[in-house]
Design the sequence.
């Protein structure tokens, strides 16, 4: 189907342009973090929640900002923000707060120059269409960025599995059993 090809083409084009060095830096930050805080709004936030779930399966301490089980920050914590536009007001406030607390931070975005990026220690760009740039895709709003985000997160999990000597079997032992 032509529509499937549109989606797959958007994903392949954007993912192939991700900076591998920055990806490796993010893996290192995650491995060395005491706790990983994740934040995103809308559909970008939903993709990030899936990533938080897999980080937990890896045995890492992770939570989504705003959830009731999110702990107090400490030295060596990491904040990862997902924002296609990089200018979501609530996330700007959050990264400024993290900056004031001297927390390490990373932004995953579709935008090269962003307010959130100015306060982030690492900016990992997924050069895909976001809600403010309709020209890169026939898909609506930020769909391409959100789809690529999920592919990126699953790629990060594979890299983290190798770095942490984890497997599907060891991760499955941490999967929820009260379902």
Sequence:
């Amino acid at each position: 189907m032509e529509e499937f090809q549109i989606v797959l083409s958007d994903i392949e084009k954007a993912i192939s342009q991700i900076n591998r060095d920055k990806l490796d830096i993010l893996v290192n930050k995650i491995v060395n973090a005491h706790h990983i805080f994740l934040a995103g709004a809308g559909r970008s936030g939903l993709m990030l929640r899936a990533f938080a779930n897999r980080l937990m399966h890896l045995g890492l301490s992770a939570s989504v900002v705003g959830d009731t089980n999110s702990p107090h920050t400490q030295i060596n914590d990491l904040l990862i923000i997902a924002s296609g536009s990089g200018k979501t007001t609530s996330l700007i406030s959050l990264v400024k707060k993290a900056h004031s607390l001297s927390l390490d931070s990373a932004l995953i975005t579709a935008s090269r120059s962003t307010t959130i990026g100015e306060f982030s220690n690492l900016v990992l760009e997924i050069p895909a269409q976001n809600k403010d740039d309709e020209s890169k895709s026939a898909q609506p709003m930020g769909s391409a960025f959100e789809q690529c985000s999920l592919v990126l997160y699953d790629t990060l999990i594979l890299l983290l599995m190798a770095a942490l000597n984890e497997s599907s079997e060891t991760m499955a032992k941490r999967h929820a059993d009260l379902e």
Observations:
- The chain has one domain: 14-67+74-169.
- The two ends are 36 Å apart (CA to CA).
